[in-house]
């Protein structure tokens, strides 16, 4: 049927000219809570834009559109409308087919804190120092063996972060070896979700490509800049509510969402689930208490991108070789690479990769797609040309999960002379200590299968794996393995792993044991290890280390076999560093070791010693000593004599709440707020200045009227002297005024509409809260 439009107050009168109406929309006698903009034409017909109708929940059809692109409401199929002008309401009768389902984002809109990422100026030096003696029982050698150190230094600013990592070694001579690791600059733009890097970097890649180290420049999509952004497709649910209802969503037996539903069709998007297979339960409960339950099996995977999302990485530079061994070993040929993934739909992700340079051309395409609610599949093909030789590659993978069974399979084949940047720029290590399984060329064959099998026993797992690898030089490895674990009494666990190599290298290994918690963060593990070097009985008793300052941990280790290996170590986590000392016996030798891990920070006008800082941090400046500081409501420490404290462990690009306890502040201090929310940039620091004024020109002033009665609470006043400012009168006529002078004048707006004036004197008293009593305002 087609609906008609009429005016409730004057049903037979049409307006002389078109007019705009703003009406509250009711659909099937239930308010949508929305006000729509409509136009009433000269003949009384209502029209609206397509976007306006979609917002209020009506589906526009092409047959109802006018030449101007508007939609006639009386031409919408299965829709009837009636205007009630006195109440400015539009009543719509409609079937579900004519309505746009109400969209509900069960995943939420992410953080609502509107704070842009920040970065101050500063520097951080992370260090790890390891000292060791020679044998303590051999009197013919010098006691000191040497000192090794690894370092990670960075300078950060609003313009990016410059990083430099390196290692040093010291023995009997001066610093005899310095090895540079990474030197790079990076800058991230949270608006575009792009990170720019220059210097040493790792190229982007896909499961069927091989990333390489380059010295050059990179432009890369970085979804980590938006922690609230879900990149993989999530399941959705559609339905219709006949009456007002509530909806609850359960995932992994935990309620993940709850909300109200108005009558009509609805669609729930972004069901909050985790990666892998599972089942979401949607429970609809109407106003009469009747329930409708729907179970939705799903499979979510990071291999897929949501529709419309683009992930990419582009690089240009010189391939780096012998990383960690040589400081400046770069191939002289300029190489480039580009990688992209695009969510064409929620069920199809496109992949592409190209790389090349001097005499090398390589490129390929791939797809990834869901397999219903059971898993994800992918397929890719690539080809290369190098010095006139051509080759190709195909790769396919499969992820499946059905109830307690799970399967991962991957197969890859190369044909001809398939080459990539890694294969043509790597220098084969042919030294005596070179690993036999290392080959720079792309493997000719790669097959991987992992199967998790349910067992008849509770709290147990059984996994089977097989890897078939044929290297570029023809060597093969065909490894079959099995692992099993079983939870026993008192949270103890039995575990075992075995493998057999049927390829060129041969080999067999078995590792089995039991782990028993002893309480108080102490656990014991004993295991039997059988491999190429014989059979060993390994026993460990350890107390795990906590992240809190003051944590003490220790470990006793014994490995009994052909060559005994025994050690004892104790560690302590202080506020300024982590320290560990130990003694180790290997065979007849005995040596002592010591390790120191920490960081030095220059930021916020001070120098701080801390444990390692690998992510973001804040320098909290309170302006007063001995003030307790909290991060996410967890105690961090107290400010030093300069009123500052370093707060490590902040999450980059996420809101971090930092607060202070004002109870230890002097009574005469002035503080604007006790809580701040900061969003630091990656690997940088921010200064959280709480603006505490320890010598404020402030006082508590009590205002009265001409009869001596306190002024009304809630009235507003204006400070006329000094820098001015507004204030509000509280209970008993009291107001807290800042930036006072020796002589002060104010005006106060009374509730009766009149204005009164007052004058008073002020004199600061160190260590006391100044109170000015009974100031008349007339």
From TrEMBL:
State where it is primarily located: membrane
Q: How does it sit in the membrane?
A: Multi-pass membrane protein
Q: What top-level branch of life does the organism fall under? A: Bacteria
Q: Which UniProt keywords apply?
A: Cell outer membrane, Fimbrium biogenesis, Membrane, Transmembrane, Transport
UniProt xrefs under InterPro entries: Fimb_usher (IPR000015), Fimbrial_membr_usher_CS (IPR018030), FimD_plug_dom (IPR042186)
Task: Indicate where this protein resides in the cell.
Answer: Cell outer membrane
Query: What does the sequence similarity comment in the record state about its family?
Result: Belongs to the fimbrial export usher family.
- Supply the name of the protein: Fimbria/pilus outer membrane usher protein
Organism equals Chelativorans intermedius
């Amino acid at each position: 049927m087609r609906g008609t439009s009429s005016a409730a107050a004057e049903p037979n009168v049409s307006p002389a000219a078109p007019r705009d109406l703003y009406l509250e929309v009711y659909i099937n006698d239930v308010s949508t809570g929305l006000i729509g903009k409509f136009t009433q034409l000269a003949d009384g017909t209502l029209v609206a834009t397509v976007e306006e109708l979609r917002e209020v929940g009506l589906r526009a059809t092409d047959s109802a559109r006018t030449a101007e692109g508007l939609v006639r409401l009386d031409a919408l199929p299965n829709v009837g409308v009636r205007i009630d002008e006195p109440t400015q309401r539009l009543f719509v009768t409609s079937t579900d087919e004519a309505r746009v389902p109400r969209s509900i984002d069960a995943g939420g809109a992410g953080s609502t804190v509107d704070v842009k990422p920040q970065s101050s100026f500063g520097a951080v030096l992370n260090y790890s120092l390891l000292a060791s003696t020679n044998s303590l029982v051999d009197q013919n050698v010098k006691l000191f063996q040497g000192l090794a150190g690894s370092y990670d230094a960075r300078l950060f600013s609003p313009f990016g972060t410059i990083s430099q990592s390196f290692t040093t070694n010291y023995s009997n001579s001066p610093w005899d070896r310095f090895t540079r690791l990474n030197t790079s600059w990076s800058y991230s733009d949270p608006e575009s979700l792009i990170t720019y890097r220059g210097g040493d970097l790792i190229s982007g890649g896909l499961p069927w490509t091989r990333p390489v180290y380059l010295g050059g420049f990179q432009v890369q999509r970085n979804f980590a800049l938006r922690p609230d952004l879900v990149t993989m497709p999530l399941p959705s649910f559609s339905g219709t509510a006949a009456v007002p209802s509530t909806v609850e969503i359960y995932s992994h037996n935990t309620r993940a969402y709850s909300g109200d539903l108005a009558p009509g069709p609805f669609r729930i998007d972004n069901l909050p689930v985790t990666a892998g297979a599972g089942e979401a339960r949607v429970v609809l409960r109407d106003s009469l208490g009747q329930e409708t339950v729907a179970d939705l099996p799903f499979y979510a995977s990071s291999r897929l991108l949501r529709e419309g999302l683009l992930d990419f990485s582009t690089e240009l530079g010189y391939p780096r070789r012998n990383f960690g061994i040589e400081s400046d070993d770069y191939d002289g040929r300029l190489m480039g690479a580009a990688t992209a993934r695009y969510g064409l739909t929620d069920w199809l992700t496109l992949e592409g990769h190209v790389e090349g340079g001097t005499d090398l051309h390589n490129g390929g395409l791939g797809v990834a797609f869901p397999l219903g609610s059971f898993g994800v599949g992918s397929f890719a093909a690539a080809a290369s040309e190098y010095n006139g030789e051509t080759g190709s590659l195909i790769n396919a993978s499969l992820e499946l999960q059905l109830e307690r069974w799970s399967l991962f399979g991957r197969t890859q084949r190369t044909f001809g002379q398939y080459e990539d940047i890694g294969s043509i720029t790597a220098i084969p290590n042919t030294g005596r200590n070179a690993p036999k399984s290392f080959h720079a060329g792309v493997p000719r064959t790669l097959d991987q299968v992992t199967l998790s099998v349910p067992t008849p026993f509770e709290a147990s797992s059984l996994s089977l794996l097989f890897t078939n690898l044929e290297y570029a030089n023809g060597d093969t490895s065909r490894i079959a393995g099995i692992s099993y674990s079983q939870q026993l009494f008192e949270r103890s666990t039995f575990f075992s792993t075995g493998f057999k190599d049927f390829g060129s290298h041969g080999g067999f290994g078995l590792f089995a044991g039991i782990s028993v918690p002893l309480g108080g963060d102490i656990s014991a593990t004993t295991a039997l290890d059988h491999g190429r070097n014989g059979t060993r009985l390994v026993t460990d008793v350890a107390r795990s280390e906590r992240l809190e300052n003051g944590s003490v941990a220790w470990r006793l280790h014994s490995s009994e076999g052909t060559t005994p290996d025994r050690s004892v170590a104790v560690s302590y986590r202080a506020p300024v560093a982590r320290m560990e000392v130990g003694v180790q016996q290997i065979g007849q030798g005995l040596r002592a070791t010591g390790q120191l891990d920490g960081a030095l920070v220059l930021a916020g006008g001070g120098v701080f010693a801390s444990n390692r800082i690998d992510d973001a941090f804040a320098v909290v400046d309170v302006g007063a000593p001995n003030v307790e500081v909290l991060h996410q409501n967890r105690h961090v420490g107290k400010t030093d004599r300069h009123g500052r404290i370093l707060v490590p462990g902040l999450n980059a690009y996420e809101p971090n709440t930092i607060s202070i306890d004002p109870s230890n502040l002097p009574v005469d201090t002035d503080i604007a707020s006790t809580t701040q929310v900061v969003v630091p940039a990656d690997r940088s620091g921010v200064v959280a200045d709480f603006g505490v004024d320890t010598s404020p020109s402030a006082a508590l002033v009590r205002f009265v009227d001409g009869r001596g009665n306190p002024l009304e609470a809630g009235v507003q006043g204006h400070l006329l002297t000094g820098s001015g400012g507004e204030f509000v009168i509280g209970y008993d006529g009291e107001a807290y005024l800042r930036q006072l002078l020796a002589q002060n004048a104010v005006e106060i707006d009374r509730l009766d509409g009149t204005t009164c004036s007052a004058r008073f004197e002020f004199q600061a008293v160190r260590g006391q809260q100044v109170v000015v009593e009974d100031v008349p305002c007339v």
